[in-house]
Design a protein that fits this description.
This protein has 213 residues and is mostly beta strands. It has 3 helices and 16 strands. It has 2 domains: 131 residues, STM4215-like, CATH 3.30.2000.20; 74 residues, Elongation Factor Tu (Ef-tu), domain 3 (Beta Barrel).
Length: 213
Amino acid sequence: MTARTIIPNMRAAARTKLLSLDLPVSVTGAVTIAGAVLTASGATFVTDGHGPGDYLTLAGLSAGNNGTRRVVGVTQTVLTFADAFSLNETANSSIISGYMPEIAWEREAFTPVPGVPFISEVFRRVGGKPIPFGGQWRHDLLLSLTLQWPSGQGTLGIESMAGRLLELYRPGTGLSFGGNVGKVVSADASPLSEESVWTACAVTASVMAWTAN
């Protein structure tokens, strides 16, 4: 593939990787809803990877109780949410899954919703022109994913997501799309930046890719 394809193809590879992010899922039997508390006697919420600060998406409940909610407390069998449910109920089954934030893709229109987490993506070349390397051209690229979490809700949720992204793009991870091949050579997360509306954390991955001379 040519140098002209390297940016769009490596961006597409990084996006495919992001959309494959493995989020914790719990499938439970009977659950009881009371106030802001969900109890499932056979659940293993902590083992499944749920934790305070996470946003979870619930399905299989009454319409007013389904949707995305923020967790403030977790035991193996009990989830406590920041806000009360619409109604108390006992449901026969439910699916409780980790929440994938909305993504503000580079060069695509996006309007943040107040109080709803999102991730902003930028993918670019660094260091100017490609470098001759072993009979090929080496391209140094940078993926930047800026996590934006509502301020005033603690930092466990954003820190947990940053950790998941660092694992997703750990050094040595291969990226390929449309005939172009690259790999992640380093990944890092910035300190949290807390402002009045949003708390931000930038997760960056340095990518090395190659094209033929």
